[in-house]
Amino acid sequence: MPGGSAGRTGIALTDRQRLAWLRLIRSDNVGPATFRDLINHFGSAEAAIEALPELSRRGGATRSVRIASRDEAERELEAASRYGAVFIGIGEPDYPPALRQIDGAPPLIAVKGNLSTLTKPSVGIVGSRNASISGAKFAAMIARDAGRAGYVVTSGLARGIDTAAHRASLDTGTIAVLAGGLDQPYPPENLGLLDDITDGNGLSVSEMPFGWEPRARDFPRRNRLIAGISLGVVVVEAAERSGSLITARMAADFGRLVFAVPGSPLDPRCHGTNGLLKEGAIITTGPDDVLAALAPLSQLDLFSPPIIEEPTKDSSDMMPPDDDARGIIVNALGPTPVEVDDIIRHTELPASTVYLILLELDLAGRLHRHSGGMVSLAY
Question: Domains in the chain, ordered, with CATH?
């Protein structure tokens, strides 16, 4: 039985903080990395919200930044309550400990179901929507044995492999990660399965707003959460351009284990998994391959410092950077992603100044953020 990690370690948000956090993350040009930087700089979401218009103006925005209103946030909280869901902040006890560690972890997630599932060690199982019979059976076998060993199974509620993995782990616990809002699950034929998950030992998770219908570009974001929640990801069947390969790549980037099930080179559904094996994925011919590799990880302490609101810094620390410093950073940036530490070394500007100017550019829509904390200038 996996020992888990820090479990329910963290600090609960007040209702006022949760409302402000929701307003901030739903405002224009505020993604997870920007959210964290804003809280770190201003000390609270409320202070950051007040600063957004001036920050975006200084960053060169051509129009006023849209800030989610209190009424909008309250309506979404009410929608969540009606749906039987809650919002969990990244520093709170029920936030998934493994997800908290990744770059760009969502500050708030909406969840519905058995909250204890979130803090248990998890294995992701993904694969082809057009799964073969043998592929679906193998995914179910991995899911059942992982569940018996104490792991929660995380997947994306898609047809095929995802469905088989969820169904096989209903009794032991499974997490369905959605690409749209919690109230907009996809595909429609899995609505019954989703009810079985959330009414039993599992739950559904999303970082998207209530009412948000999933689009093609939202599924890679969902895949990032599957990879982030899991200690390792098992890919059962995947074509060469499968979304499951995106999940596998993200898992590798996060330092998670990647497992791949070998298949016939004549079956297009196995081209992606066979390619993962060539790239170093763990060959998986049975549940023991997964459980033996995951066992050491399940004992690790996965708790890392969360985003915590602290009193706003003194006024001398809040002085805006001058135009010269801003120009130096803009000139140093280009379309190629670079690390923030390299910007600091290259410009010889104080780190606090660099981070604040990057925030200004980001809120003005002039900055792209990339994996690994890298940034580039938007043209």
Answer: 15-110 (no CATH), 111-299 (3.40.50.450), 324-377 (1.10.10.10)
